[in-house]
Input
Amino acid sequence: MQNTFYNEILTDHNLHPAHKHELPDANFQLEGVNPSCGDDIVLKLKVEDGKIVDGAYLGDGCAISQASADMMLDLVIGRTKEEAQRLSEIFLRMIKGHITEEEHEELEEAGALIDVSHMPSRVKCAVLGWHTMDEIFDDPEKAAAEAEAAKKE
Amino acid sequence: MMITQDMIDKVRADFPLISDEFAYLDNSATSQKPQCVIDAVKRFYETMNANPLRGLYRISVEATDAYEDAREAVRKFIGAKSTEEIVFTRNATESLNLVAYSWALGNLKAGDEILVTIVEHHSNMLPWQMAAKQTGAKLNYLYPDKAGTITEETFRKALTPNTKLVCMTHLSNVLGRCYDLKTFAKIAHGQGALFVGDGAQSTPHMPVDVRDLDVDFYAFSGHKMLAPMGIGVLYGKRELLDKMDPFLRGGEMIDYVTTEGATWTELPHKFEAGTVNAGGAVGLHAAIDYYNKIGWEFIEQRELELTRYAMEKIREVPHITVLGSDKAEEHHGIITFKVDGVHPHDIAAMMDEDGVCVRAGHHCAQPLLKFLGVPNTTRCSLGFYNTEKEIDRFIESLSTLRTRMGYADR
Output
């Protein structure tokens, strides 16, 4: 019995995520959903002076969607918004199958999802967290308002 | 009957895509096709391809005959009174939409009620939501118990004096439960309601007699019963079809057209606007011939054996919950389950790595899954050409899923 795709990096991030928790002082928050398969995450970021100082997510979904969000946060916490966006662009290109060896290494553990490029039906799962982060930076007012609303709940 | 290994091997050899390479256990999504069906479609296009019902030359006449012979084969297959009651469509979804647009919109009004069950596939739910919205009729849902049982009493209680239409599946694509349409149709008729049966899952697995069931409409797809994709059937009682307006308007469904309007041609062509899927109909004819050759006794017995075997084996695997009844007899080859802590999409992907094809997701029955309290499930669905060995392969894969996902079970 082979076990190619579901490697230890992926299953470990899924079962023992480092960043799946509440983040009360997040100043940006956005929900990302894949309606057709039910993957659902809420991404929370704490950004100060253009730098992601902390991040977390909550949600339900398949191992790929959840682990990918966890790997992403591992990678972007401590980086600037611009660096995070650049890494996200590399990750999305990896999923489409166009990436260099150096770029693959830059993604650290998130690079473990490279085989998704051969699994078209799972692309949406893998990119959910990354798309949600991109959307936060594309429309920061909305994400800030959602973080405010979450604090009042 | 005594089913021998030789009989099983012979049946498997009829299906070019069935082999030991992978175990195809997604038969409720679509069945595999026997070589005779593929050959029949090929022969149609190779030897008699012309637009049926129009041309006045030899091969068009042959194409027309082949198309109408297929209709006669379908009539006999489901026990309809006449071929005028057999309308070819693309699939069960289109058949049900035809009834919703052509019957429901013209016959329902505010104050009327439509009854559907929560077990329905979206294709036997969304058309009625549309019809209710457009006519002002009320849409009521019938809830079975958690095992999927609908008793006569539950059914009677769900009917009201205003119920004008009941739409119900013959066999659930999630629970595998077969419903007693004959009894329910009789009760519905007693209250003055019409009855629509969804036969998408039943026609591949059991003999159906629409006159015995006494349903008013019955819809099914060819592709789930060995035929090509893109050919389906709507059965309707003649007196109802006669009074209905066409669903689609266009070619070969008129008697006379002026700039002001048209008069519709006779049944069933009134409902078959545009060039028809004659190749698909010929394929469906070949599929019906194949069913007749293999025989229901073999199919039903074999599918029950396989279901019993699979249900027994799946019970031995820890952390698995099977939806629906505990009894194999009430599953008809359909076993929908969840695995604690493992998402269905991951289950299907890991099973694929092991050469096992199963369906993951909501199975186009989101309201049912919500009622059962499960967001997502995996479904193994068996056909008469599957084997115990393939079920073993599925069970073996199933038993390893949690450890592969990092759970320390053992």
Remarks:
- Chain B touches chain A at residues 342-346, 349-350, 353-354, 361-362, 375-376, 396-397, 400, 404-407 (CB under 8 Å).
